[in-house]
Design brief:
The complex is a heterodimer of chains A (477) and B (321). With 477 residues, chain A is an alpha+beta fold. Chain A has 17 helices and nine strands. In chain A, the strands form two sheets. A five-stranded antiparallel beta sheet of chain A has the order 4-3-7-8-9. In chain A, helix 5 runs parallel beside helix 7 (171-183). The radius of gyration of chain A is 31 Å and the shape is elongated. Chain A starts with 13 loop residues before the first helix and ends with a helix. Classes of the chains: A alpha+beta (477), B mainly alpha (321). Chains A and B meet through helix 1, helix 3, helix 5, helix 7 and helix 9 of A and helix 2 and helix 10 of B. Chain A: Belongs to the protein prenyltransferase subunit alpha family.
């Protein structure tokens, strides 16, 4: 269906057409017979496995053939399993192993011709699950289990490596390999994905799975709270900063080598943006029954992030409403003397072990601080006190962003007509604007002006929807 | 010139069932794709506004055959005697609406609903493969049959959201790489679940980046453009109301370039056409510029002509105006 060139279309001789018609007729007749067998309209062939193997090789894409084959296999597994449990028959044990091995071999042969067949990969997965069951059965009977599932799984990883060498973007293989880690975590994902990237910096599949590796691995770490405190990282993934910087250097190399590619910029953008603080910037409004706090970016799920005190007396919060970058907190009307607001980092404060968060929970990583609002005849004044370790963290992130901006500017110098680094810088400047607002909001305008200049450049290179979209974003300030 | 070429596709489509295509062994190996093939063919003819060219007798014949594809478990196989699968059940339902015939929808709905798992995902059949394609088949089938109450719609949406990746796009299962065809399945499912609460701009930007210099869309970074992605992703952009995020004229031109002078549309220029790409090329054109080519608009959520959908009660609140 895909990739059939017209110019290469064969003009067949009459002889060839006749042969093809005959072969086609054979296939149809075989299928006809197969379905009769399946519906028990004729006797089952003596060797059902051999028969279904023939059919699978003839028509590898027909799922029903594998359904039939699985039914036959399951019957044999059940029968041999029973023999094994009841009589500890060595013969039964040998036959089980042989069945398993030859099935995997058959699927491997078929996969060579059809590496992207959902049907084949599903069948292979089914075989791994059956192997797992059989392995458990054998171990129950005889501790000295020679089958050893783990060896079989190692072979599966080998198969994946070989197939990815042939086609590094085959998502069936990547998905299967990823699934194997749920059976037996043997994969060494860090090494493997890094190797694939170093083999070819264009391998987006490798970057993708590397991103998954980071998300899962660091999120499941036991000492996430310690990490936040000691490494002073605020954000979604408490990736140790030194690891993040190493990874960023790797992708910078990739961009340097393949600057005209989309995928490398995506991965770079994700890495650089993965730790971004959410923090208070100013008191927008204060009255005797409500306050509006403004943040450096849009927040949500922050209902449990605030504590209010009027002259050291705890205030009951009636309502918290979020509108983009503003949070509106309502409380009982009263005379306000000195209003103190504590912003709590829910993860830090409550030692939450819930580390796999969805996007709309990110702002539970608010920068913790203490806001003091004093009222006078002219209105109000406020101060904001942030713990030193968090100020240091914000500065570290800001510097890291500056380093990456510097890098992209170098790419722009080399690639003046390439729209990708311009698009990239416009995203990175968004990140920088957010941390700038936390450090010194008065310098925000410089960033905006710089961005607008890049927008103009981008429009000259390619004035498409992306250029418009980014221009509209930066024009809003 | 292009207008003439579009009309060429009708004879190509009408001849598909007659030809045993003796020159291609592929024909015999696609026995299991007959129901799907029927859907692509008839839908393409409907898109060309020529469904009346199919004789009543032919429609009867096809309807009879289609009914025979339903199994005892209520599901449909890809052809008579083939085991049931959610994809073929979905194709059969769609095809039945095109042909104007009735199937045992009650049993079909039960089969589809039984495919939903506790985590909200859908399996393809009793053998357990899970994939966003099956979620889409599930939501679409049950919405069309007005049987949404048989499944947990909220859980279905939650599962799909787990398929979202760092680049803002969607893969086929959680952890899978973002892919243009799965964008259709995931966005379609979320749309039908009435839950589009994800970062739409990020996804639209990813789709924007799929447009190649020749105007066609590819499925992933660094891959070749293919006409079928015109449908998979442009329909998603329509559902998300972000049609202008790609260069529509360039995409239109690319699809026209993919036409085969012998009839039909191929995956890319100068390749051989097939019914699959013919349908998706025409369907995408119907959304891009239906009026110009006198095409019957194909609805981006259900992939059926709007003219047929308006008569399906279950679909009415989802039809894109």
């Amino acid at each position: 269906m895909h990739g059939q060139s017209k110019s290469k279309a064969e003009t067949l001789s009459e002889e060839e057409i006749k042969l093809r018609a005959e072969k086609g007729q054979q296939i149809l007749e075989s299928l006809d017979y197969f379905f009769k067998v399946r519906k028990n309209q004729v006797n089952q062939p003596e060797d059902q496995l051999a028969f279904s193997e023939l059919m699978a090789k003839l028509c590898p894409e027909i799922a029903t053939i594998y359904n039939y084959r699985r039914e036959v296999l399951q019957t044999k597994f059940d029968h041999l399993g029973t023999l094994l449990s009841e009589s500890k028959s060595f013969e039964a044990y040998k036959q089980l192993l042989k069945l398993i091995q030859s099935e995997f071999m058959l699927i491997t042969i078929l996969l060579k011709q059809h590496p992207k067949s959902y049907t084949l990969w599903t069948h292979r997965q089914w075989m791994v699950l059956r192997s797992q069951e059989i392995d458990q059965l054998i171990t129950q009977i005889n501790q000295d289990n020679q089958f050893k599932l783990i060896e079989a799984i190692k072979q599966e990883y080998e198969l994946c490596s070989k197939m990815l060498d042939r086609d590094e973007r085959n998502f069936h293989v990547w998905n299967y390999r990823n699934w194997l880690s749920s059976i037996c975590a043997f994969g060494k994902e860090d090494e493997f994905t890094k190797k694939k990237i170093e083999q070819n910096f264009s391998n987006f599949s490798a970057y993708h799975f590397r991103s998954k590796y980071f998300m899962k691995n660091y999120n499941q770490s036991e000492n996430i709270i310690e990490r936040i405190k000691t490494e002073q990282i605020l954000g979604l993934i408490p990736l140790p900063f030194n690891i993040l910087k190493e990874e960023t250097e790797l992708i910078q190399q990739a961009i340097y080598i393949q600057p005209k590619e989309h995928g490398v910029y995506l991965y770079h953008r994700w890495l650089v943006g993965v730790i971004q603080p959410f923090g208070f910037t100013k008191v927008e409004k204060a009255s005797n029954n409500s306050i509006i706090l403004q943040f450096n970016r849009a927040v949500n799920n922050v209902e449990n992030s605030f504590e209010l005190f009027n002259n050291e007396n705890a205030l009951k919060i009636i309502d918290i409403r979020v509108e983009g970058i503003n949070v509106i907190i309502s409380f009982e009307e009263q005379q306000l003397l000195n209003l103190k607001i504590k912003i709590i980092n829910q993860i830090y404060q409550y030692g939450s072990r819930e580390t796999m968060m969805s996007e709309d929970e990110f702002s539970r990583f608010l920068v913790p601080s203490e806001i003091n609002i004093t009222f006078n005849n002219d209105g109000f004044q406020f101060t904001n006190k942030i713990q030193k370790e968090f100020i240091d963290a914000i500065n570290q992130i800001h510097n890291y962003l500056d380093d990456n901006l510097g890098f992209i500017k170098q790419v722009i110098e080399e690639e003046k007509q390439n729209r990708f680094p311009y698009i990239q810088i416009l995203y990175l400047l968004q990140f920088k604007l957010r941390t700038q607002k936390l450090i010194d909001a008065s310098k925000s305008n410089e960033i905006i002006q710089e961005a607008l200049q890049h927008c103009e450049q981008l429009k000259k290179i390619q004035n498409d929807h992306q250029a418009q979209f980014l221009y509209e974003f930066w024009s809003q300030f | 010139m292009f207008q003439q070429q579009l009309v060429n596709h009708l004879p190509y489509l009408m001849a598909l069932d007659k030809s045993k295509d003796l020159e291609s062994i592929g024909h015999y190996l696609s026995e299991h794709l007959k129901v799907a093939g029927g859907y692509w063919t008839i839908n393409a003819i409907a898109c060309l506004n020529k469904i009346d060219q199919i004789s009543e007798e032919k429609k009867q014949q096809l309807s009879q055959w289609l009914k025979q594809c339903q199994n005892e478990d209520g599901g449909f196989g890809g052809n008579t005697n083939h085991d049931s699968h959610i994809t073929n059940t979905h194709y059969a339902i769609l095809l039945s609406f095109l042909l104007g015939c009735e199937l045992n929808y009650e049993e079909a709905a039960k089969y589809v609903a039984a495919r939903q798992r506790k985590d909200g995902s859908f399996e393809g059949d009793k053998w357990g493969e899970v994939d966003a394609r099956f979620s889409y088949c599930g939501l679409s089938s049950l919405t069309l049959l007005n049987k949404r109450d048989l499944i947990d719609v909220k859980k279905a949406a939650n599962y799909i959201k787990k398929c979202r990746n760092f680049d803002g796009s969607f893969g086929g299962i959680p952890d899978a790489e973002s892919h243009g065809a799965y964008v259709f399945c995931c966005v379609g499912t979320l749309y039908l679940c009435e839950d589009l609460s994800f970062n739409i701009d990020e996804l639209a930007m990813w789709i924007h980046e799929r447009q190649t210099s020749k105007g066609g869309l590819n499925g992933r970074p660094e891959k070749l453009a293919d006409v079928c992605y015109s449908w998979w992703m442009y329909s998603a952009l329509c559902l998300l109301k972000r049609e202008q995020w790609i260069n529509q004229q360039a995409l239109e031109n690319y699809i026209l370039e993919c036409q085969d002078s012998d009839g039909g549309i191929a995956d890319r220029p100068n390749n051989q056409s097939d019914v699959f790409h013919t349908f998706f090329g025409l369907a995408a054109l119907s959304l891009l510029n239906g009026d110009k080519y006198q095409l019957n608009p194909i609805d981006p959520a259900f992939a059926l002509p709007k003219s047929i959908l308006i008569n399906i009660p279950g679909a009415s609140r989802f039809i894109q105006s």
